[in-house]
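Hi P.,

Sorry for the delay on this. The queue was packed all week, but I finally got your sequence through. Input first:
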Amino acid sequence: MVSLRATTTFVGAWPALLLLMMASTVGNLAIGQIPSTATPTVIVETSDEPIAEGKFDPSWQSLSQYQVPEWFKDAKFGIWAHWGPQCEPEAGDWYAREMYAFDQPKYRYHVNKYGHPSEFGFKDVIHEFKAEAWDPDKLVELYKRCGAEYFVAMASHHDNFDNYDSKYQPWNATNMGPKQDLIAGWEKAARKHGLRFGVSVHSSHAWSWYEPSQASDTAGPKKGVPYDGKLTKADGKGKWWEGYEPQDLYEQRHAPAPHFTDLHSIHGRWNWTGGVTTPDEAYCQKFYNRTVDLINKYEPDLLYFDDTALPLWPASDAGLKIAAHFYNSNNKWHGTSDDGVLCGKILTPDQRKCLVWDIERGASNEIEPQVFQTDTCIGQWHYQSGLREGHGYKSAKSVIHMLIDIVSKNGNLLLSVPLDGTGQPDAEELAIIEGISNWMQINKSAIHGTRPWRVLGEGPQMEDAAPLQAQGFNEGKGKPFTADDVRFTTKNGDIYAFVLGRPTGSIGIRSLGKDAALLSAPVHAVTLLGSDQELRWSQNADALVIEKPTGELNDIAVVFKVTPKR
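Then the structure:
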């Protein structure tokens, strides 16, 4: 309990077009778990890309041996470059899908900016993506300064474009667009600055995600003229993409699922058991080969999949084989047991023993027995200029509150900071990063290397916590954090108490009172991080009461280090 309340607010002007774009992306979130007992249909071959030898076999039972490495438990905070050619239009997430939805916001935006999707499709947007101002060394140095202990770069999104020198996907960043290996640049910078390096892979869903590219306008002068999603290599003669097979990008060599032009329909059948047209053997095999090639080339410490359980499960066993290869490879590279981290979504209890549970734009409401990761973004996943113009990004305060709350529950926060098509964050994003840095420089000892305490916290926010939905999506749906809310972490026998706002009077923390019986011994000392002033405090039956420290207190969160008697 804190005696007086200081309410936090988040204010942003959201343009009407932006709100429409966001609404079209959210859709129906009724996505459920897929049991480990399902039987895979397509069994991929491993002759071209063998599975590394080691203790893990490609089965859920074997993967259940996995133990989350200490480096990940200690890291707590990572930065993510969710960046690729869909950032070039500056129109937000899922652009390469929604630009094919007739008369919808991104379709209209695309027609106005580039032309009709029968003549200028997403393949042509890739040609415009140059990353001409990208400086990975400078960016990773900035991210490290704000307290990130690991860095993740997007290797491929649902748009099926590989941001690296891919052996199996000709539509990649070394052949077109930037004409440089983006993942190699990120990996080099992360290693230089001492950060663990990860990659995210989202391309398993390109098969169904791109299906609107098979459609056409249903009215107007272009009615019935097919979009470019069914073009083939033969159609490229005399074009910039001559010699490339568009179907290697769009993967539309199949009949689409029913109602494929309904943008919301994909959410209800995101899982491969949900009514989507089943991917064929060639598609599953290529995904396996591409991903193993990615792992072998860049030796990531972390591999993030944007999939329920594992990619293509249970349409294929590709995900199981990739997981076994990734874990065995990491153990070989580092000479230790279980050094890699593999993230999956909407996991069953038994799958949480095999992977790190990733929660998208949300967090658990309790201390989890296994470490989890929340991934979120300060804006839209792909760069959206409307957020910059409307001042709609998450504030540094909002991000730090999320980080504290998540760490108190045994989680890590992976934060995406969108880059534009040139490869730069804008001025507002830089100011947010600076705000995070300023707070972390003082208080990071209460974050890094800590573990959850006996209770996660106290205060009114806990009384109105929003439940998780599908991949997560409870972010911002509960009560906002105020100075009446407290969260805890612990390290080396000390307890860190975070007051999530600027206190205006004495602070009373009930969980640290004598009657709560949560401490192993009476309180011996209380200090304020970032200050050498001697605090006045008392531990009584009801609470640990700390008189308000002198001087100007941080308005984001103040952190007290509480040391019990040894």
